[in-house]
Amino acid sequence: MSQHPLPGDPTSGPLPTPAAGTRLDRWLGSYSARTHGMRASEIRALFAVANRPEVVSLAGGMPCLDVLPLDTLAELSRHVVATRGATALQYGSGQGEERLREQILEVMRLEGIDAHPDDVVVTTGSQQALDLVTRIFVDPGDVIVAEAPSYVGALGVFRAYEADVVHVPLDEAGLIPAALEETLARLERAGRRVKLLYTVPNFHNPAGVTLSAERRPQILEIARRHNVLVLEDNPYGLLGFEADPLPALRSLDDDGVIYLGSFSKTFAPGYRVGWAVAPHAVREKLVLASESAILCPSNASQLAISAYLERCDWRGQIKSFRELYRERRDAMIGALAEYLPSASWTVPDGGFYTWVKLPDGLDARAMLPRAVTARVAYVPGTAFYADGQGADHMRLSFCFPTPERIREGVRRLATVVSGESELVDLFGTGGSGPGDDVQAPGPDLA
Ligand code: PMP
């Protein structure tokens, strides 16, 4: 017998309305088991404060959109609705617009990928592709092998599907083949079912490193031998600062790799357009899974991106992004050398992030409230592991703040690391942290 009155029961009287921001949840007993893995990170609420203008946020993975030609894009959107409005505003194909899928092939050719438009599934950002791939392959308790550390948003998806994430270390040349071999052999001996190897080979989030050209075929050979499907997540591949992109894993093995791409970092995340390229049979399952989740990706977004690729110099735009982020990377690395010589860090050749190892004995998560008080924010390393490692690391992103702000942010961070800064009650809550009604912004997850 339920202890609670049923909704609509005339004898039960009006139900009390919980005040906004209280923790009461009437449906607590009703959630599926799968939601037990869905947790807001403990640090999320802090980011509501970290997003205040006086705080230098080195936390988020938001691209800098200042260099986009907004007037031209506005005109393009107008043109799309004026000339193709009935399509743009209508439902579309579950797999995505054919013209856009052809254009995506052009983008991927820059990384040596040779595919057919039929192999491409357009998704709502590559985040949705991560969800779909996990949904069609992973049962609770299946193993996903992933780099240590790994992208926080992928770990969230894997947790939601109750996967067991097993980390494999990386170094400055990316995922370590010998460690992968050892881990897969150990899991095989233990009778564990490994469904996916999840990897971000280029300008890794959060580690900033890139899988070397020599290691790429080695990783693929190991995965093939152990019959493990590789999930190659590559939103940053075209954002190299020094050299042309390395060949994608998918370009070396079209049957053993699912490749994920995105326009979020090379153009703009607001359209929420990404894609997956998968072996034929897998592609069909992805389309079915996507249709049941969202029916179809947004036609308006796809047509806008398609028009952009058609009419604008998207290669030139990527070049501008590379220059912008290179300057910011230099500012970040220069400031770390000047202000934080007691730490060590990776020097990324592209992308958005550097991975900083704190001096011995410091805990990045414990330090975060003091950092936010000192008006600087970062993401503690523990966010990037499924198993609690990473307290001695932090991810610093250099994509969004200007070089001057980056330098100032690192200078503030140095005062926190050296213990000069004090913890004051920035939240006005008597020291208990930000209130629950503070809406956490998303980009700390990016
Ligand atoms: N993968 C990685 C490694 C990322 O860093 C991100 C965003 N930060 C995503 C996937 C998701 O990107 P989107 O959904 O915007 O394409």
What is this entry, summarized?
37% of the residues lie in helices and 13% in strands. It is α/β, with parallel strands linked by helices and 446 residues long.
Largest sheet: 8 strands, mixed
Strand order of the largest sheet: 2-9-8-7-6-3-4-5
Uncertain residue ranges: 1-15, 427-443
Structure ligands? 4'-deoxy-4'-aminopyridoxal-5'-phosphate
Q: What's the alpha carbon Rg, rounded to whole Å? A: 23 Å
Work out the number of β strands.
14
Distance between the termini: 44 Å
Considering DSSP H and I runs of 4 or more, what fraction of the residues is helical? Answer: 25-40%
Our estimate of the beta-strand percent is 5-15%
- Order of SSEs: HEHHEHEHEEHEHEHEEHHHEEHEEEH
Give the overall average pLDDT: 90
Structural class: alpha/beta
Shape: globular
Q: How many individual helices? A: 13
